[in-house]
Amino acid sequence: MADQDQNTQDNQDPSFGLQRTYVKDISLEMPNAPQIFLEQESPSVDVSINVGGQRLADSIYESTVTATVTTRIGEQVMYLVEATQAGIFEASNIPDEQLDPLLGIVCPTMLYPYLRANVADLITRTSLPALHLAEVNFQNLYEQRLAQLAEEQESQDSGIILPPGATRQ
To answer: Which residues make beta-bridge pairs with 86?
Structure first.
């Protein structure tokens, strides 16, 4: 009987783990090559990071981190890289209030090093200088997303529609 109680207890313990990581999507565009290679001006770099995810099965989730890197010289695009790194995670017996932060902070934090390496490798293969993505604080991104969602909800509740980028005073 004690063994059965122990097994029941073990089955109720929270568990979390990365099952698999993979490149879900990756692309590189160099629309102004080869002429852009003749430019002497230093490029400007714009980086955008987004996270996403979905439930695949009862305790199986996919988490994604997407980077979009646009490098320009003046108005001309030198290169555009879009890459999505994904992972399959098992998360069972996790309280609901902890599941969203787990999927929105922990999973992207685990996937981001893979994304950084893949983006750096892809850019290096262009024969251009390497670009290494900066570290990202996914907790800050998660908190910003929550604040934005709360603000949008507040706007909808009050019947006032704010234009994109506007904040309530």
So the answer is: 22, 64
Averaged pLDDT for residues 40-67: 95
Confidence of residue 156 (pLDDT cuts 50, 70, 90): confident
Q: Is position 4 within any domain?
A: no
Residue 103 lies in a domain: yes
H or E stretch covering 5: helix 2-12
Q: With respect to residue 5, please indicate whether it lies within any of the assigned structural domains.
A: no
Q: Does 165 map to a domain? A: no
59: region left, alpha or beta (phi > 0 left; psi from -120 to 50 alpha) = alpha
* Cβ atoms of residues 35 and 73 within 8 Å: no
**Terminal-residue alpha carbon distance, the chain:** 62
Q: What is the pLDDT of residue 169?
A: 45
